[in-house]
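[Discussion] Sanity-checking designs against the backbone

I'm trying to build intuition for which residues belong where. Below is a structure token string of 313 positions. I'd appreciate it if someone posts a full sequence so I can compare it with mine line by line.
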């Protein structure tokens, strides 16, 4: 269920938030009669439209989008489920003999689609029990199950220790066993399971201004009102989304809109730094030379695409 057939033409448009990925992805899909697969961890939630910069109804009517509006915001949507559903969407697009345009800023969600990532089991009750342990006890239990765990897990990091112990208790393998899996090296070496070409978009020093303009537009378009309407429905994951987390105190009356805006700008720039670091490690991404004119960016991307076997074959 998951992998597209070899003839699928796949291109990914990746980069930090507010970099112009969606605009470029739309244009590429228009020119190729393709369909878009979103790799945004928060656009999967229904009703979270303004704060996630979700494609508008008109854009979705023009170009078919996938992996948007999948679940209600009170649900926790795991990346393993995203992988299963997203790969099925890619396979369906390939079966229609149409190009696939992957667009988004979540590096993990992107890699879950194209790389052989395998997600170990999880269970809320087991997780809670493990997190309730003293760190020394959790480390001792982990080392008893796997004396070599320290070679693969930072034993000083409680979150990583508890997650590793949760997986062990659920029968998902020890850290040493998982590291010995041949797929581990394939993921580490960025060897994908399906052919694709990735284009990176990053405005460099202009990103800060673009982020502020985007947030101001979101506020103008009703971000506070959107968060107010969803406040009682936001689950653990959705409530942590950038913009929503910062606007919840505004809705509650403990922050002003200005304070919420400033906090959202800071959080968005912190997210962008993480995205840049994550994507910067991926040697498969070809970064566009930035140009403020969208038409120039489209032209540059088109020239690159013309050189790409996975897109033109």
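Best answer:
Here's mine. Compare freely.
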């Amino acid at each position: 269920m998951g992998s597209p057939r070899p003839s699928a033409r796949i291109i990914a448009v990746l980069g930090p938030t507010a970099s112009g990925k969606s605009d470029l992805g739309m244009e590429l899909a228009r020119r190729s009669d393709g369909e878009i697969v979103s790799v945004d961890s928060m656009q999967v939630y229904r009703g979270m439209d303004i704060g996630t910069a979700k494609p508008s109804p008109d854009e979705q009517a023009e170009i078919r989008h996938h992996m948007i509006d999948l679940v209600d915001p009170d649900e926790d949507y795991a990346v393993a489920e995203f992988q299963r559903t997203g790969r099925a969407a890619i396979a369906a697009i390939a079966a229609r003999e149409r190009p696939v345009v992957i667009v988004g800023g979540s590096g993990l969600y992107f890699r879950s689609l194209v790389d052989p990532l395998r997600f170990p089991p999880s269970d809320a009750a087991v997780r809670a029990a493990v997190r309730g342990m003293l760190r020394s006890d959790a480390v001792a239990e982990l080392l008893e199950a796997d004396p070599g765990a320290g070679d693969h897990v930072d034993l000083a990091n409680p979150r990583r220790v508890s997650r590793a112990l949760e997986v062990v208790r659920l029968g998902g393998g020890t850290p040493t066993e998982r590291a010995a899996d041949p797929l581990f090296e394939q993921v580490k070496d960025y060897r994908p399971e399906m052919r694709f070409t990735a284009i990176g978009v990053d405005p460099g020093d202009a990103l800060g201004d673009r982020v502020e303009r985007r947030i101001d537009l979101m506020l103008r378009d009703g971000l506070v009102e959107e968060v107010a309407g969803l406040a009682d429905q936001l689950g653990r994951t959705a409530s942590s989304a950038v913009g929503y987390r910062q606007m919840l105190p505004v809705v509650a009356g403990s922050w002003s809109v200005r304070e919420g805006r400033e906090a959202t700008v800071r959080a968005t720039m912190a997210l962008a730094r993480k995205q840049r670091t994550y994507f910067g490690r991926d040697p498969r991404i070809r970064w566009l030379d930035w140009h403020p004119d969208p038409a120039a960016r489209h032209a540059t991307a088109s020239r690159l695409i013309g050189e790409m076997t996975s897109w033109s074959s």
